[in-house]
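Re-run with default settings, no changes from the original entry. Doing this only to confirm the output is reproducible before filing.
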Amino acid sequence: MSAPCREPAHAWRRAALPFLALVVAGGCTSLAPVEPAPQVYTGRFSASIERGGEREAISGRFTLAASAQRITLDLASPLGNTLARVASDAGGATLTSPRADGTLATWQGDSADALAESVLGYRLPVTGLADWIAGRATPGRPAGVSPERGPAQRIEQDGWVIDIDERFEPGGAPRRLSLQRAATGAQAPALRLRLVLDDAGAALGPSERARP
């Protein structure tokens, strides 16, 4: 299913006028609380996918934006071309990726991780990545963390093994991570993913919050 087209800005402005009139007439009408800016991580990634004795390598840039309501993972080639955008919230998951002809298509599913596996042919660690990239296990799900005290060096959760190879400073935020997942069948190949973060994460700016 192709991504929906936006309506022209002038059409939106015409539709918004009656709403603005109601707000003005209401006097004390209050706006809904603004959602807190999500945490955003950017950096480089490289992935090695192995299936049936053959290996495929992919590399590029990633952006991970996470809030309590929504997680969005963008993957781009070294030249900046879109490889995939995976988003997950309480309503389910969507994945947008180029077709063979270069046009973008969007798929929907219940789980971001499973949707990536179905569309791309390999699983992506979308639902746990915001926690793992911060050096912690995702709360509420079984996990093994070592060492038991102090900053984590290895996290095992959701079928993934996450090693924190380097931090920005001793005891600080992770800078380099290695994520591995063993093959679980012909449709779920072994995957090794390496991440190198640009920084420890920053608040998303207003212009970026407005993106689709």
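The longest strand covers residues 39-51. The chain has a mean pLDDT of 80.
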